[in-house]
Design goal:
alpha/beta; 596 residues; 8-stranded parallel beta barrel; 7-stranded mixed beta sheet; globular; TIM Barrel; 17 helices
Length: 596
């Protein structure tokens, strides 16, 4: 694998690479052959990507003729995993072989990465044989569009990017306290009222005052069912399964603002949350009208989304109103429920049945394990430390998706907090994402088989714009591709970080914003009272580059002092530090700290 590390720049790294002699010469005259069964889907996609990547048009054949040099072949045997493929490059031809559409699609993604980043009409592809298959079946990304609505075009753009890195699940967090984003035809108020909130732009998320009834509600948006069908078709061609989330019984302020009778607080009116905390945001689990309403919602969602899954949340439910609710007291007595956790599991159990009745499987966050659980559901295990759902769920027989908030919650900033946009104070750098391990230790082989895979989550409290959202997504989502696809023994942080600049060029070519926080300098210091000075420690997460700094207020350059260890400085000096490559190029932002 060493030679591949140095020359091919492939992400995610394939399972096996064998180098051969020579190279394949690509030109505008190169012809591509596709099986006719994939003509309607794969042919326009390949045409689009070759044109966008290389600036050339090539002839794509669906009838076997002599002369095709790039050949896509479907076989019945030889592959045991969905998405597995071989890519065989020789001087005479390139052959992509699989037993599925997914495998041909992924073979093409690897072939794209072997081609030039920028336009080229003639070039060579090294002769190589790649045998590849995914580690996990579930390779996901979640984007929250409730806190800040994003356009369907933005969603499709991200699906296009993640598909190129072999991620195959897009989890669409469509509802929460701050907005309901999916059209439900039977209940028009969900989008007429629930999709809009009062404007608090410019006010920190956790410092926002609640909306009043007479304020204009101008911030928001929603997707029509036709919008969603367009996204679904776009995703289907890219082998991405779209999983909708309707978050209940908590995180439902936009829902109860639209239909207050679903709350425990009879006859009370609510407003869609504007940010921060959202009290009174839970549905009543003890009114039959709640289940009748949600049955109708699930019916429309199930008919709209072809996925086998519907995510129903179940997380962070504030039960304070349940404890004051006569309906809940009666329900607990009638059903012999011991506590409010069992009341929530009663709710999730009924919802699980409703989802099953529509031919779907329910997914929930790991809080649905509490009480009596929700047998038959799939668990997204996000909590850690005093909670151990990553172990409890598979040990309890639940199919489990690993979504650790410590490793893959990319709403957390990714560089020194003084250089990053507003966000949680916890730093989740690229290297920590890459070096995390989705499969927890301590599971038996049988329990490990219940781990479906891993998913990265972008919660949207702090991402009001498309550009900001992309900044948080990339390159950490590219690291997610190796977590989910590649075998642990093939992962290598040194190789990955060296390969990324080429992938940054790919993102730039496609108009995708990304962060360079991996090139930031982390600086910390302590006052040395004995000697009347300051001791400064500077670090970065990448290797092979140089930290250069100044203490006189000037921006550092290639001629500035080189950091080789602990730095001693005068108190109240202005430290400026940057990371430079060997050619003297500043790679990231300059860190600036007053030492006092």
């Amino acid at each position: 694998m060493a030679k591949a590390n140095d020359t091919l720049n492939l992400i995610p790294i394939p399972e096996k690479i064998t180098f051969k002699e020579g190279a394949f010469s690509f030109s505008e005259k190169t012809q591509i052959y596709l099986p006719k069964e994939f003509e309607s889907d794969l042919k326009p996609y390949i045409n689009e990507k070759v044109k966008a990547d290389l600036g050339v048009s090539v002839q794509i054949l669906t009838e076997k003729k002599k002369g095709a040099q790039i050949i896509f072949v479907i076989v019945k045997d030889g592959f045991t995993q969905d998405g597995a493929y071989t890519l065989d490059v020789s001087p005479k031809e390139i052959k992509v072989t699989s037993n599925s559409y997914a495998g041909l699609f992924y073979g093409f993604q690897t072939l794209r990465q072997l081609m030039p980043v920028n336009n080229g009409t003639a070039f060579e592809i090294p002769a190589v044989r790649i045998e590849d298959s995914p580690r996990f079946d579930w390779r996901g990304l979640m984007i929250d569009v409730s806190r800040h609505f994003q356009s369907k075009e933005f969603i499709m753009k991200q699906i296009d990017v993640i598909a190129a890195y072999k991620l195959n699940k897009f989890h669409w967090h469509l509802t929460d306290d701050q907005g309901w984003r999916v059209e439900i035809k039977k209940y028009a108020l969900l989008t007429e009222k629930g999709a809009w909130r009062a404007d608090r732009t410019g006010i920190a998320w956790w410092s926002r005052d609640a909306a009043t009834a007479d304020e204009p509600k101008t911030v928001g948006g929603f997707y029509t069912q036709d919008d969603i069908r367009e996204v679904l078709e776009y995703a289907r061609i890219r082998n991405v399964e779209v999983i909708p989330e309707i978050d209940v019984p908590g995180h439902s302020k936009a829902l109860v603002a639209s239909y207050p009778m679903l709350s425990c607080l009879d006859d009370q009116e609510f407003e869609v949350a504007v940010g921060g905390k959202a009290p009174d945001n839970a549905l009543c689990p003890s009114k039959e009208t709640t289940y009748e309403f949600l049955t109708d919602v699930v019916a429309e969602i199930a008919a709209l989304f072809p996925t086998q899954y519907i995510h129903l949340g179940g997380d962070e439910c504030n039960k304070s109103n349940w404890k004051k609710c006569p309906h809940c007291s009666k329900m607990m007595a009638d059903e012999k429920l011991n506590d409010y956790e069992e009341l929530q599991s009663y709710f999730m159990g009924r919802m699980n049945s409703i989802v099953n009745d529509h031919g779907k499987k329910m997914i929930g966050w790991d809080e649905i394990l509490s009480g009596k659980g929700a047998k038959g559901a799939t668990i997204m295990a996000w909590r850690r430390n005093r909670f151990t759902p990553e172990l409890d769920a598979p040990r309890g027989g639940y199919p489990t998706i690993m979504t650790s908030y410590e490793d893959v919650y990319i709403s957390q900033v990714q560089g020194p907090s003084i250089l990053e946009p507003e966000g949680p104070r916890v730093v989740l750098p690229l290297s920590k994402v890459y070096n995390s391990e989705p499969m927890p230790s301590g599971l038996s082989m049988k329990e490990q088989e219940l781990v479906l895979g891993t998913e990265m989550c972008l919660w949207a409290e702090f991402t009001p714009t498309e550009s900001h959202a992309e900044y948080m997504l990339y390159p950490r989502t590219i690291a997610q591709s190796e977590l989910a696809w590649s075998r642990p023994e093939n992962k290598d942080w040194q190789r990955f970080q060296k390969n990324l600049p080429r992938h940054f060029l790919r993102l730039e070519r496609n108009g995708v914003n990304y962060s360079k926080s991996m090139y930031s300098v982390y600086a910390s210091y302590a006052i040395d009272e004995l000697h009347g000075n300051v001791r400064v420690l500077m670090e970065t997460e990448t290797d092979g580059n140089e930290i250069r700094y100044t203490l006189n207020g000037k921006d550092p350059d290639l001629n500035s002092d080189l950091c080789t260890g602990m730095v001693t400085a005068n108190i109240r000096s202005l430290l400026k530090a940057g990371l430079f490559n060997k050619d003297g190029k500043l790679l990231g932002k300059i860190t600036e700290i007053r030492l006092r």
